[in-house]
Structures are given as structure tokens and as C-alpha cells.
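By convention, the C-alpha cell line describes the chain's fold. To illustrate:
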Amino acid sequence: MWIGWIEFDILLGPVHSLKEKRSVVRPLLAEVRRRFDVSVAEVGDQDQHRRTSIGVGLVSADRAHLVEVLSAVERFVAGLPEIELLSARQRELHSED
């Protein structure tokens, strides 16, 4: 069994309050969840209105599928015009590690 995750550090566009931030982050989380069938959550920077950290996790039977899905999620997030992807950190672990 393979366990993988990717964490994104994101700068949001013209957002001036935490309420506006939620209106950007919630649909993003829902779309990633729907499109890729992964676990996703805001995992950091909850108190800053222009920054967020989003984590995506996946469990898979084989590493190739895991890497393929996480790479597709990264391409999707990087291609969104309303955000700027500052960094992405990806990790995979085998259950026997």
C-alpha cells in the first residue's frame, strides 16, 4: 500500500478578508475532491486572508497511480488563474517503510 500527499503554499488574488478567502478556498477544495477523488483540506495559514496551505492525500495500491494522481492535482492547482502557487511539496511512502 502506498500513501502519498502533496502540500501547496498558495497566494490568493485580490482577497481582502477571511470571508472572501473562504469564497475562494471552499470551491477549490470541493473541485479538487470531486475531480480527483482525494482527501483535501486547508492545513495552514487559516488566519491570513491572502495565503493558504492546502494538503491533498491519497492511498493507492501502486506507486505509479499515486504519483499520476498527485501530479494531476498539482497541474490543476497550478493552472488556476485566481491563485498563485508559491510551492508544492510531494511525498510518497510505502506501508512497509
